[in-house]
Amino acid sequence: MKKQLFFLAFVFFYIACTDNRTYETKQASLTSENLHSKMKKEITMAMNQQAAGWNRGNLTAYMNGFWKSDSLLFISGEGLSFGWQQILEGFQRGYPDKNALGRLIYSEQQFTPAGPKSCFVVGKWRIVKKDRTRAGYYSLLWKKINGQWKIIADHTSEDENLGNKPDDML
């Protein structure tokens, strides 16, 4: 009888410990999901603000989403660029007025947290102009700096074939 009671006590103890670990694992998972959801929401809002600035013809507002640092990295078909000011000036040369900017649209974003204060975001971009549409892909490394999400590295590439597709195929 003592062996049976010992065995029964062991079983209850084991179940209690297992259930507790399962509960803690579920709680950690929920916390992680909540953090990911909050991160995604905040970065999406920052990207929407960037696109709105671009679409108003205000490159400085667009650049507010980037880390204002000489260490900011931008990679494109033209090579590497460093520094917030240099990148802004490059955009100003490439897009001298509102008509040149067109309308910027982001789509198919995928968010991969790289810690509690950093996130890797990939997706498609499209710039619609009266005479043509340009499109391509981007990969952005976002970091929360002083309570705000900022892009610290941007790799953007154009895909000429993608730009030639009708809007419903993008």
Describe the fold and architecture.
The chain is α+β, with helices and mostly antiparallel strands and 170 residues long. It has one domain (2-169): Nuclear Transport Factor 2, Chain: A (Roll), CATH 3.10.450.50. Helix content is 46%, strand content 32%. It is built from 5 helices and 6 strands, in the order H-H-E-E-H-H-E-E-E-E-H. The protein has helices spanning 2-55, 59-63, 84-94, 98-101, 160-163, and strands at residues 73-76, 79-82, 103-113, 118-128, 133-145, 148-158. A 6-stranded mixed beta sheet has the order 2-1-6-5-4-3. Strand 4 and strand 5 form a beta hairpin. The N and C termini lie far apart (72 Å). Mean pLDDT is 83; it is low at 3-27.
Please describe the topology of this protein:
Blueprint: H1 2-55, H2 59-63, E1 73-76, E2 79-82, H3 84-94, H4 98-101, E3 103-113, E4 118-128, E5 133-145, E6 148-158, H5 160-163
Parallel strand pairs: 1-6
Antiparallel strand pairs: 1-2, 3-4, 4-5, 5-6
Short description:
By secondary structure, the chain is of the alpha+beta class.
Q: Give the radius of gyration.
A: 24 Å
Total strands? 6
CATH fold topology: Nuclear Transport Factor 2, Chain: A
Helix content class: 40-55%
Q: Kindly provide the name of the CATH class.
A: Alpha Beta
Overall geometric form: globular
H and E order? HHEEHHEEEEH
Distance between the amino and carboxyl termini: 72 Å
Mean pLDDT, to the nearest integer, reads 83
The tally of structural domains comes to 1
Low-confidence stretches: 3-27
Task: Look at the helices and sheets and give the structural class.
Answer: alpha+beta
Strand order, largest beta sheet: 2-1-6-5-4-3
CATH architecture designation: Roll
What fraction strand? 25-35%
